[in-house]
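hey so i finally got around to running the thing on that chain from the lab meeting. sorry it took forever, my laptop kept dying and i had to restart like 3 times. anyway pasting the input first so we r on the same page abt which one it is
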Amino acid sequence: MQTKVNMKKIYIKLIWLLTGPVFYALFRLSFLWPEFTEKVYSRTIFTFFNQLLSTVTGILPFSLAEFLLYAFVLFLIVFIVIMIIKSIQAKKDWWFALLNRFLILLCVFSFVYALFVGMWAFNYARQPLGKTLGLNTSPATVDELYSTCESIIEKANALRESVPEDGDGIFSPEYTKQDVMKSVAENYNNAAKLSGADFLGGSYGQAKPALYSTGLSYANITGVYFPFTAEANVNADVPMLLFASAAIHEGAHQRGYAREDEANFLAFYVCSYSDDPSIEYSGTMLALIHSMNKLYDADRDLYYELRETYCDGINRDLENNARYWQKFESPVNEASQTVNNTFLKANLQKDGVKSYGRMTDLLIGLWRQDKI
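ok and heres what got predicted. didnt touch it at all, straight out
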């Protein structure tokens, strides 16, 4: 009789186990109708609930996401230990006890994945940002890429002349990192107003510093968005050069822009509407790095030609930024890139980590409109 009761519980667990596959199927289907996903999910359902959730979690001065991640790791360790103990105690029925516990664990992962899709991943299937902004992102010539890079360099050089620097000649804005994290929503709302892209606005919780920022640096990560709490977490240890753009990048994820190339582009786009030249400079430098990397792949001679046009201040800032990241070069860095690449591909981003570089397609589209 006891075995029948247990079997009934197993059947119930199997139902929970189906939540993940069902949401995965819905996730795949959502890519067939990007306009529908954009309008119904990203602009309506997601926006409403994410603003509410991020406002609530934004009350906390620390990252709830980080504590939940640590708690989940602890849960897994304790659960596995208990699973082993229960299996030993079951003696002859050890296989049944093990199966029962293993099903519970699978149900947990399946349900967490279903939540991940429902609370966030559908955004991968939304309408491309280029189409939303009316940008021409068709394949570009090397000449167009060159001209885009040239325009970004001119902008970066001009901005560098107007931003403060420290005694070593390194970019040193008057704002603090805390100021930047508090101003993410303000910068998005300002960009929404000035650009006419109303969908960028809204009421969201502020970005937060990751407590274990050093660990993120070892993983070569400047920020992490956690969809279960709608928190944009930023590596608080990175140099100021790209800190503002990193915070605004995570803010893009908070607003439902899941694709890395689009979040990078929005970091530049939103920063460009800031009334603070230091924030605008940070976003422009992000665009400069990505576009020039693309030019390097396309034509190294043209890359080096333009590289010579960087002003001295930009060169000092880039060297300082490079020195910081060199301290964290390790196998952990490579492993992190592999994990990130796998994660992106699992969410149907075929280019994996290379999708970060596709920001340049959007930049060229903006250049074609004479907006860079």
